[in-house]
Specification:
heterodimer; A: 394 residues; alpha/beta; Rossmann fold; five-stranded mixed sheet; 14 helices; 49% helix; B: 96 residues; Alpha-Beta Plaits; two-stranded antiparallel sheet; 3 helices; 4 strands
């Protein structure tokens, strides 16, 4: 509900916050000065992009513009620290401050006829664009999305009509270029109403491609979007790069649960039982976070919970083979109930990383899956207690 | 999307064909090729592939499309529910 409300007030960009565990979108940042009240969370007000100075990543020189202003010309070559920064952001390190100032940048030496590409101020988006567009002359209009990527920011409306109009005006774009065309990423469309931009600013919005990698071909073939340029993919590699941050985000809750399992296992039946429970749980967690998403297209069903439960079941089997020789029947049943439930939960969380799950679909699936998971965990706890009682009885 | 299809019969996508002017914007913005143009009207061809991102609704110049748009993300929904019941999300103090 909240998400929809944010989209509706999209004229006044709101730096909404991401759910802490959700992964596609880095948690967003500080409120703009115009916001009536600050958001309920988020780091202190240093996470605006700020203003463009000589310190922006890849700064080469100031380029004078025809209307008397100046624009920062930026390099297409990424440095070691750019690569390191991207790597760290993938692991969730410094990801909330991984942003560049909004505004207009020059790649190469663009003139008044050069194309204008629009992007978010997430530094990874900025870096990918400037390196992809090496050797070309064009303008890069960066919107203030508080360091959030285009897709997630469009969903929140920060990559939106209002912010685009603000930047067109603030950069005096109409005085710098003679044409009235803007090229936007297709995944920015959930935030931008092209006809409103046209009406308010005179600029035509063209949705170019989904991936930055397709831009060179798009620009060379007269700005025609081919079917493959508007088709989403979700390859093994594209899934793989999303996993580190998922793991990092799960560490805190996993540590608490591990500690609880240790205490429970240790005081009820000793260190062997405790370590077995922790091993089984961490395996199910890993299965749900890593194995489920990687095997996504090959797992049965359309539901993420079902996909997660099926790899979880596989893990329960492996776990049983590895350490289950001494388990009695209730203990075995408990493992086969709880482990798929744990994996199912974490794979269900991966819906936040995909670009094909719908909110009403996720809602439906959660309404069914969450109670089942809860019941599985509860029954498993009861079964463990019964199993333990049988052991003590001898 | 090749190889990936989410749940059937859940999308809230609606197109009022009588209002449609056939401009083709929805075809341009939809990342899942849900729409096709037939004659001078858009029609929904792959309804179940819709992920309710809302791009078509926002970009339709005559408001012929409606969809209950949002972000399909389990954690966000859990946090919403917790907040509705005045509970704090575990492990975070953030809002979605």
């Amino acid at each position: 509900m909240k998400i929809r409300r944010i989209k509706k007030i999209e004229k006044r960009p709101t730096p909404s916050c991401c759910p802490p565990l959700s992964s596609c979108c880095p948690p967003a940042a500080a409120p703009p000065a115009t916001l009536e009240k600050p958001p309920c969370c988020g780091p202190p007000a240093t996470t605006h992009g700020g203003v463009i100075t000589e310190k922006v990543p890849g700064f080469l020189r100031w380029m004078p513009t025809s209307e008397g202003g100046r624009v920062a010309q930026i390099a297409s070559e990424l440095t070691l620290s750019d690569h390191l920064g991207a790597c760290k952001a993938r692991w969730g390190i410094g990801r909330m401050h991984y942003l560049v100032p909004p505004g207009l940048y020059a790649i190469g030496t663009p003139d008044a006829e050069a194309p204008v590409l629009v992007t978010a101020n997430y530094k990874m988006s900025y870096d990918i664009l400037r390196s992809t567009l090496r050797g070309r002359n064009l303008w890069l209009l960066v919107l203030e999305t508080f360091g959030v990527n285009v897709w997630c920011a469009a969903g929140k409306g920060t990559f939106g009509t209002g912010e685009l109009l603000t930047q067109i005006k603030a950069t005096n774009l109409a005085g710098i270029v003679n044409h009235r065309q803007l090229i936007l990423p297709i995944l920015g469309a959930p935030g931008v109403a092209a006809h409103t931009v046209k009406k308010e600013s005179g600029f035509n919005v063209r949705y170019g491609t989904i991936r930055a990698a397709d831009l060179p071909v798009y620009l060379d073939n007269g700005q025609v979007t081919t079917p493959s340029m508007r088709e989403l993919t979700f390859t093994l590699y594209e899934r793989l790069v999303l996993l580190p941050v998922e793991i990092v985000h799960a560490v805190k809750s996993a540590a608490i649960i591990t500690l609880l399992l240790f205490l429970l296992g240790f005081f009820s039946s000793g260190s062997t039982a405790a370590s077995q429970m922790i091993f089984a749980y961490l395996g199910a967690l890993y299965t749900g976070i890593v194995v489920g998403p990687l095997l996504l297209p090959w797992l049965p069903g359309r539901s993420f919970a079902v996909k997660g439960a099926s790899v979880g079941l596989l893990w329960a089997l492996i776990c049983y083979q590895l350490v289950g020789a001494d388990w009695n029947i209730p203990q075995t049943l408990a493992a086969f109930l709880a482990l798929p439930a744990v994996s199912a939960f974490y794979t269900l969380n991966f819906t936040g990383c995909t670009t094909y799950t719908s909110p009403n679909g996720v809602k439906k699936e959660m309404r069914l899956a969450m109670p089942l998971m809860g019941m599985a965990i509860l029954s498993s706890a009861v079964l463990l207690a019964v199993g333990q009682w049988l052991v003590m009885k001898g | 999307m090749k190889g990936f299809h989410y749940l059937k019969d859940v999308t809230t996508l609606q197109l009022q064909e009588e209002i449609c002017i056939g401009c083709g914007r929805c075809l341009e913005v939809c990342p899942h090729q849900v729409f096709v143009l037939q004659g001078k009207k858009a029609v929904i061809a792959l309804r179940d592939d819709c992920m309710e991102c809302g791009a078509c609704q926002l970009n339709c110049p005559v408001a012929a499309i409606s969809v209950d748009a949002g972000v399909g993300c389990a954690t966000g929904l859990i946090n919403d529910w917790l907040r509705e019941h005045n509970l704090r999300a575990p492990g975070g103090d953030c809002c979605s």
